Amino acid sequence: MPELATEKSSLYDLTPPELESFFLSIGEPKYRSSQVLDFLYRVPVDSIEKFTTLPLSLRGKLAKVFTLAPIALRATLEAKDGAVKHVYELTTKAPDAALESVWMPSEPADLASSDKPTQPRYSLCVSTQLGCAEGCKFCATASLGLRRQLTTGQIIYQIVHCRTLYGNYPDTVLFMGMGEPMQNFQAVCAAVEILTHKDALGFSPTRIVISTAGELDKLEEFHTRFPKVRIAISLNAATDELRSTLMPINKRFNLKAIASFVRSMRLEKRQKITFEYVVLGGVNDTPEQIRALVNFLKPFSRRIKVNLIPFNPSVGINFQTPSKENVLKIQETLRNIGVMTFIRRPRGASASAACGQLAGKFWTSPNF
User: Fold this and answer.
1) For 330, which of 20, 28, 143, 282 is 20 to 30 Å away at the CA?
2) How many angstroms separate the CA atoms of 102 and 177, rounded?
3) Same domain for 55 and 193?
4) Residues 46 and 75 in one domain
5) What is the pTM of this model?
6) CATH, residue 312
7) Total structural domains in the chain?
8) Known catalytic residue at 100
9) For residues 85 and 34, what is the distance between their CA atoms, to the nearest angstrom?
10) Which of the following is catalytic: 125, 132, 139, 355?
11) Among residues 89, 100, 180, 276, which one is catalytic?
């Protein structure tokens, strides 16, 4: 439980049960937790002083121990397609890189159906670390290395702040921003607990997606705890030789381990595991690689779906974007073996906010 310290904890760090325990520990009734949760999630306010259903003396006690916002918005960048990158700094320590999340108007993932009208919906891509230690060669975040782990509150506030910015919470939360969620396991689990708790944000677990490079040991533990949360595994190659070149994690959790994991998972009815495949022109879209991909996926084709993600260019990342025709051909090939396959549009690329582009480097300039 947080104690009075020079660097205050945020109230957003606490799950509802932890908040209830805190109030009991200071001699307050547990219903104080519900009162505070209203001001954190239902009608978010920017100051503990505005917790008007609490006595002034109690507000004073809280303000001595806790703060509210654990990150501070410094800028927003809107891309041509309507995606908006939020650029935050951490308020606890001055970072040497910025924290980024992305608000995106949702639309059909399948390019073939992109002309169909849809009801406006929004997704938020959140970060779980400042930087990342996985070292994937096609991802700009990897160039930062791991700068620091984010707290539960720093993760959750990326979501809560959308209520202030847009008047609504996102329809879907994607743990696909900066960092590897399974390498910040406890904070991410607490954030998902807050997201899904009926007295906090109250999201259905099916509206949450956890994306991982393939940290299978932690992923198994996570799936046991949150069986309905959607899981996406970054695949990107179907031979160990190429995947190890692109993703160092393959030396610890190779394709055989991934296949075994997928076969062993207990899935809900109609639930599928997503494989993300960043298509790198001339690298993993060759006929040889696609044949290997078909052979890898075919034995468990009904348990999975595949998102094809055309590579989004970033400064210093030496890969090429594939042709649309080639990506469509891969989609057709995988659908022919019974694999649900979709093509993800590059959202936010003009603001360096698309998949693989979040690095915070622009914001380290003196003009930040």
Assistant:
1) 143
2) 8
3) no
4) no
5) 0.90
6) 3.20.20.70
7) 2
8) yes
9) 32
10) 355
11) 100
